[in-house]
Amino acid sequence: MAMVAAWAAKAVTAKVIAAAGIKSLVAAKAIYAAAYAATYVATAVALNAASQALMGGAPDMDSGKTSLRQAIPPRRRGYGRRRIGGFYLLWTARANYAYDVIAWHHGRVQGPVEQVWSHDDILVVRPDGWVEGGHGYGAGNNDLIHLETRLGRETETAYPALVAALGASGEWTNAHRGDGLATLGADYRHAKKENLLTDFPNGDPKWSVVAPLSPVWDPRDPAQIRTNPVNHRAVDAMGRGNLALMILDFLCHQEGMGEDYETTVAPEIAHWKGEIDICDEVVPLRSGGTTKRYWGSIDYGLTDDPQDTLDKLLKGCDGRLSKTEAGVWKLWVGKYRPPSVTLTRDDILDMVLAGDVASQEAVTEIVPSFVSEAHKWSLVATDPWTDETDASLYGGGRSRPDTFEVVNINSQVRRLVKRDMSRERASLRGRLDGRLSCVRVLGERWVAVEFEDLDETRIVELQKGVKTAFSRGVVEMPFIEADPNIDAWNPATEEGDGPQTSPRPVQPVLAAPTISEVLVFEDSVGGATGVRLRIAAAGPSRNDLTWSARWRVRGAVSWVEGNYADLDPSAAALLETGFVSSANLDVQAAYLTGGGSLSPWSDTFGVDATIVTAGVATDFMTRDVVYPISSTADSVSVQEVNGVTRGGATVKIEAQTIGGLPPLTSFGVFWRAADGVEVEVSPAMTHMQNGGWLFLGWISTSSATGDYPEGPTPPGGWGGSGEAVIVV
C-alpha cells in the first residue's frame, strides 16, 4: 500500500512548456511542429488507491489500441492474446528526457509481452530494453528509447530508470510499484532538438502492447485449482484463447457477471467441459492446415456493462447461456447436437408462427467485420456471406453489417455468419406456448417438437426469451427451425478471400458449369451405409480444376459442400458425394481453378434421394493387374485380369478388344459376365447406373498420329487412385 499512499500524497508534475527556449522533448516538438500548441499542460495523476487507479469511462474500441491521458483513467481487463493500449499513470519530462508509465491491464496477465507498439509501428526491443532505431523512430540510433514491462503481480517492482531520474523529487519512487497492474515504463530522449522530428516523426510515442492477457481456469486440467491461479493460462501454445473458458471465467468473476460458481455452474461442469472441447476442435483452412473452432480475444472496461461484454464473447462462438430448471447455467456453443428433449402434442397449448418477411426486408447478405492481427489489430470487413438463391427469389433482398469484436480469424467469422444466415432465412419460426411440463426444455438449445398442424416432428432451436409464466401455467418458447447440416464446412468454397492487405487481383470471368444428371445410389463406406450422389457435370476443358458440389434438403437454407475427385477429368466431370439426406434435394456444382478462382455455382438440379437407383456399377476391391486397359486411335483393349469385386465375387475377365471407335474420345470401360467388355463415352452414366456392370477404368483413344489428349488419371474410388487402394 506504499504506492497508494505515495499516489494519494503526490500529483504527477505537470508539463508546462513554452514554445521556445526550453529544451524538453515536447517543447522541442512544439518548435518544429506547427500542429502543437505553444503551451502544454499534462494531466495530473492523483490516485488514492491502487484499486482505483484505473477507474472511469471506457474509451471506444479504436482508442483502446493506444494509450490515453485521463485525469481518472479507467481500469481495463482482457482475455486471450490481443493488442491493448492503456492509460497514463506518469507523463512528465526533464530537459530532453521524457518518462511515461501506462497501465494497460487490471490484474495479472499471463504474458510475456510479445510486442510493443508506438502508434501503428512495432518496435524492435532488445533484451536489455533498448529499442533499435528504424525508419519510424530513432533514425538509426539505438539509445533513444528504453522500455520495461510488468505483468501485474500482487507485489510488483518499480522501474529503476524512472526512480533514478525522479525519485529525489518524490515524483516517482520505489514505492510506485503498480501492484496488481500490468504496466509499461518508458524513458526516452532526443539527441538534439534539431533532430527531434527525425527521431520522433510521429510525435509523442503512443504505447500499446501485444500479450496474452488474463489467465483462466481450465476445469479439464486436474492440475489446475480454480481458486489458485498460479498455473492458469490465457492461451494455448499457439496463442489462441478458448472462448468457452473466457465465458466461464467472466460469468463467475467478481469483475464480470459475478455469479456464484458453486451453486450456478458447478452442478453442470461436465457439460461445460464438453463445450470447451468443442471450441478446441480443429477446422480445416483454405490455405492448408487447421484452426480451432472457436477462439479469440477481448479487452473491456470494468465500467462497461458486463452484459455487453458477455454478449460479445457469446457472439464469437455462437454461444447460448441458458438456465436449467434448477437454476444452473449451461453454455451451448455453436455446433448442432441432436436434441435430448421431445415435446409431444400433449405438451403444446398453442403455436404462433411468424409471417413471411417482406421481400425488401429479407436479409440475403451479411457483411461481417472482425479484429484482424494482419491489419494492425483493426476492425476490418471481410467477404460478405450471400444466399444467392434467396437473393434472386427476393429480388436482391437486403444487406446488413455484423461485427465480431472477439474474433481474430477470417475462417471463424465466415462460419459464424453462415450460421446467422441460416437463422435469417429459416422458413419455420415463431413461439410455442406449452404446459408446465415443458419446463424440461430449460437449459436446452435444440428440442424436437411434434407439430400437430404440420403432422410431423421438427427440430427447433430455442431462442432468447424462454420463460415460465406460472400465473398462467405456460412456458413460452421462441424458436427457429434448426438446421442439422449447418456445421458442414468446405473451406475451398466457403472461407472466402478474407480482408486484403493489398489490392485484389482482377479475377477471370468464369462460366458456371452445368449438371446433366444426378444418380442416387446406396453405398457402404467405413462400416456405415447410406445414400450418395453421382453427379455428371460439364465445365471448361482444362487440367487445373478442382470440383466442388453441394446439396441441401429442399427448403433448407444452408448447403453441405465438399470437394470431390473428378472420376473423369475432362470437360465432362463425374463426382461422387459423401452420404446425403434421404429427402428431396437441391444439388449444385462449381469448380475452382488452379489460380484460386471459384466459378459461379451451377443452376440447381433437383433430385429425390429417397429413390435409390438399382444396379449401379461396382469395381474391383483386389485384382492382379492394376490398370488392365489400353487404347489406340480407334480401339480399346482389356487384358486378362483376375480379381475380387467390392461385393465379394471372384471374377476372371478374358482379354478383349473393341474397335471402330472415334479418336481423341474419353470412354468408360465396363464388363458384365453376360455381355463381356463394353465402352461408353464419358461420363458413361448409362453403364454407371444400370445393370450392375463392373467398372474397369477410364481411357482415351489417341489421334491418327498416336497423340493422346489430356489423359484421365485412375479416378478416386474407380480404379487405382490413392482413394481406393487396389491390392495386386
Automatic annotation (TrEMBL):
- Region called Disordered, residue ranges: 486-505
Protein name per the record: Tip attachment protein J domain-containing protein
